[in-house]
Write a structure and sequence with these properties.
Length: 557
């Protein structure tokens, strides 16, 4: 009996591996490309903040009350689960692997096998390589996973299926209630988009692609109804029925999103930190988005980087796609609209951080692949007749799609240029890892290539091993040291720029006086904290002095 069960289990595993061989290959490729991430030192500021807050949560502190950052909460709980940089990066690697498989499954709706391979190759290159910080577990990494899983759920719905094939009939309002699986998939779509939003607020623009797809379905029904029905009454009846069906279905999607967001509100209400959650986790994002003022060469360009200008361009782009809908493939329609939305999301704060643009790359991969498919189809369908090139297809369709691709890709390139986004080097990154793994360079030589403060950080971390305190204080923007040593910050803030932003100088000094940490680290490139020098002189002695920081130790007196 046992032998039979083992054989049955083996056969099931063999069939699974055979059916999903390519997906498993994609996972292995992701693991291989991301292999150098396990060797990286603690060097990246945002990652260190997530790990520091995760460590504070593990110690029982309340997010947004005892420890503060300005993002929605899920990224901090993921960091808490990861515990260390290695654990956090393993979770990020798993998330990217899931995203890659999900993206590949999504491409099945639009492209043939060879084109799918091109699309997923573009996706892997842009979302894993360090050029746009794909090697770092930023919020966009996890947003991408939730969004792509949401779109996989959306694939199961009638709205999406009608988008792909207009001959698929939309369910009536009454049948929506009885069609339980369609309703479930709609709700799951919204809920997963809600989890994306709780990871990072700009995910609401990814959420909007669901409603844009519904809009495209409405436009197609409107055009078809006008062509099929000569009588106005018949056209109105069909359009009304489909409109009500779409409204109900999108309402279910929205309810799924709202349930997740309200769930977080209820959670923080019972934690006694609802006001702080709203202030720092939600509303502060609006302040953050408007606090960066980039300089542009003209007022005309500057206008299109305002929120009003971005929405104007986005609205014009969606309307343009709607107008030329029948000349565009479903893959380009979805990718083009999604890329426009993601581009607004990536530039909400107009900051030149490369990882913000991770959010655009799934859609960009769809657009580039759709463009390549158009080019290949044109080549295959054209022939030379006595020196004249004759093509067996509607010439308007590939031209419109090619122009659309040019417009949206140019908008992305121009945006990166105007914001002066500087990607990270890729060849150097892998070259360093190769030299480390082949022992051509030492670990300190490898480590110090990432950040000028790391040499001092790792020395101070060794010093702090002797400290029994769970907390310390760093005056400066060096959360890396908190994460490296596993210490919690004294007070609510992990970095000096948050203390500056909230004018929390008195609060911070009070926290130091109450907690009396054994060690205080003062970064030499930081402007003085009012009152800190006097307090340190009275109660601390300089323990160690380094090129970038001074370590003060509490004296017995």
């Amino acid at each position: 009996m046992l032998r039979k069960k083992l054989w049955t289990a083996f056969r099931k595993l063999d069939i699974f591996l055979d059916v999903h061989a390519f997906e498993l290959l994609l996972v292995l490729i992701v693991l291989f490309v991301r292999l150098p991430t396990i060797a990286e030192p603690y060097w990246y500021g945002d990652e260190a903040i997530y790990l520091t807050i995760g460590n504070s949560l593990r110690a029982g502190e309340r997010l947004y009350v005892d420890i503060i950052d300005h993002k929605t909460p899920l990224i901090y709980y993921i960091a808490q689960l990861g515990n260390t940089q290695f654990g956090f990066r393993m979770i990020a690697t798993a998330a990217i692997a899931v995203s890659t498989v999900a993206f590949f499954m999504l491409t099945r709706d639009f492209f043939r096998p060879k084109m799918r391979i091109i699309a997923v190759t573009i996706f892997i290159l842009y979302t894993n390589l360090p050029r746009f910080e794909g090697n770092i577990p930023n919020g966009e990494t996890f947003v991408m996973t939730f969004v792509l899983l949401a779109l996989l759920a959306f694939r199961k719905t009638k709205v999406y299926q009608t988008f792909l094939d207009s001959s698929v009939s939309m369910p009536s309002r009454t049948s929506i209630a009885t069609s339980s699986m369609n309703t479930v998939w709609l709700f799951v779509t919204g809920a997963l988009m809600g989890l994306a939003t709780l990871t990072k607020v700009p995910a609401v623009f990814d959420f909007a692609i669901v409603f844009v797809v519904a809009w495209f379905v409405f436009i197609e029904v409107l055009i078809t109804a006008r062509q099929k029905h000569a009588r106005m009454n018949s056209t109105v009846s069909v359009v009304k029925s489909v409109t009500l069906s779409l409204l109900v279905q999108m309402g279910i999607v929205f309810c799924g999103w709202v349930v997740v967001i309200l769930g977080s509100v209820v959670y923080y209400f019972f934690r006694g930190s609802l006001k702080e959650y709203i202030d720092y986790g939600l509303l502060y994002n609006f302040r953050y988005a408007g606090s960066w003022k980039p300089q542009f060469s003209s007022e005309f360009i500057a206008f299109f980087f305002t929120l009003k200008g971005k929405f104007l361009l986005l609205g014009a782009w969606i309307l343009g796609l709607s107008f030329f809908k029948r000349s565009l493939s479903p893959g380009f329609l979805l990718g083009g609209a999604w890329l426009g939305l993601a581009l607004v999301a990536a530039t909400l704060s107009n900051r030149p951080y490369p990882h913000y643009f991770l959010q655009v790359f799934p859609a960009l991969a769809l657009v580039i692949t759709a463009l390549l498919w158009v080019v290949i189809m044109c080549i295959h369908r054209c022939r030379d007749q006595k020196g004249v090139v004759v093509c067996d297809l509607d010439a308007a369709k590939p031209v419109v799609e090619a122009l659309g691709s040019f417009v949206i890709i140019s908008a992305l390139v121009a945006t990166i240029s105007f914001l002066h986004v500087t990607p990270y080097p890729t060849v150097k990154y892998y070259d360093l890892f190769f030299k480390l793994s082949t022992k051509q360079i030492s670990w300190p030589e490898y480590r110090d290539q990432f950040n000028s403060v790391l040499n001092d950080n790792y020395k101070v971390a060794q010093l702090l091993e002797r400290s029994p305190d769970l907390e310390m204080f760093i005056w400066g923007n060096n959360p890396i040291l908190y994460a490296l040593r596993g210490k919690n910050p004294v007070g609510r803030f992990t970095v000096a720029f948050h203390i500056d932003d909230f004018n929390a100088y008195g609060e911070t000094i009070t926290a130091i006086e109450e907690k009396k940490p054994t060690y205080v680290v003062v970064m030499k490139d930081q402007t003085p904290l009012p009152g800190l020098s006097e307090y340190l002189t009275a109660h601390y002695i300089p323990n160690s002095d380094y090129q970038t920081m001074t370590v003060w130790k509490r004296s017995i007196r």
